[in-house]
Design goal:
single chain; about 190 residues; mainly alpha; elongated; transmembrane helix; LemA family protein; transmembrane; LemA-like_dom_sf
Length: about 190
C-alpha cells in the first residue's frame, strides 16, 4: 500500500499525461487552422463580388488554402519535424496570401464598408489570434513534456517505463524573416 502511494505521488504518470497534453494542444492548433480554412471561401466570395479585377490575389489565396488543406495531418506529424515544418510552411503561405487580400480591401472603399466583408475580416483576424494562442499553448505543452523527459524524476521514469516516447519537435516559424517586423507603408 505504501509503495502504491509513493508511486502515485512521484510523477510516474507525468510523462504520458504531458504527452497527451501535447497531442491535445496540437489538435487545437489544427482546429484553428481548419476554422480559418472554412472562413476563407466566404471571404473570397465576398471580395470577388467587389473586386473582380483582383483575380491574381484571389487566385493566390485559393491556391494557398488548397495547399494548406491538402497536407494530411495526423499524430505522426508531431513526431516528424520535417512534416511539421512542411505543414507550417503551407500555413505561412496562406497567411501571406491573406495579408495581400487584406491589402486589396484597402484599395476598394466599397469593399471596406461592406458589412459582410467587415464581419468576415473580423472573424479572420480573431482566428489568426486564436491560432497564435493555440501555437503558444502547443509550445508550452511541448516544453513541459520535453522538460519532464530530461529532468529528475521524469528521466528515470522515461528510461524505465516510457523509453518509446521521444522528445517532441516544437513549433518553428517558417516564414522567411518572421523575426523582423513588417514594413507598413501608406
Amino acid at each position: 500500500m505504501a509503495l502504491v502511494l509513493f508511486l502515485s505521488g512521484c510523477g510516474i504518470n507525468n510523462i504520458p499525461t504531458y504527452d497527451e497534453k501535447v497531442t491535445a494542444a496540437w489538435s487545437q492548433v489544427e482546429n484553428q487552422y481548419q476554422r480559418r480554412a472554412d472562413l476563407i471561401p466566404n471571404l473570397v466570395e465576398t471580395v470577388k463580388g467587389f473586386a473582380a479585377q483582383e483575380q491574381e490575389t484571389l487566385t493566390a489565396v485559393i491556391e494557398a488554402r488548397s495547399r494548406a488543406t491538402s497536407i494530411q495531418v495526423d499524430e505522426s506529424i508531431l513526431n516528424n519535424p520535417q512534416k511539421l515544418r512542411q505543414f507550417q510552411q503551407a500555413q505561412g503561405e496562406l497567411s501571406s496570401a491573406l495579408s495581400r487580400l487584406m491589402a486589396v480591401s484597402e484599395r476598394y472603399p466599397d469593399l471596406k464598408s461592406n458589412q459582410n466583408f467587415l464581419a468576415l475580416q473580423s472573424q479572420l483576424e480573431g482566428t489568426e489570434n486564436r491560432i497564435a494562442v493555440a501555437r503558444r499553448d502547443f509550445i508550452q505543452a511541448v516544453e513541459r513534456y520535453n522538460t519532464e523527459l530530461r529532468t529528475f524524476p521524469g528521466k528515470i521514469w522515461h528510461s524505465l517505463l516510457y523509453s518509446d516516447l521521444e522528445p517532441r519537435a516544437n513549433f518553428e516559424a517558417t516564414t522567411e524573416n518572421a523575426d523582423e517586423a513588417p514594413a507598413v507603408e501608406f
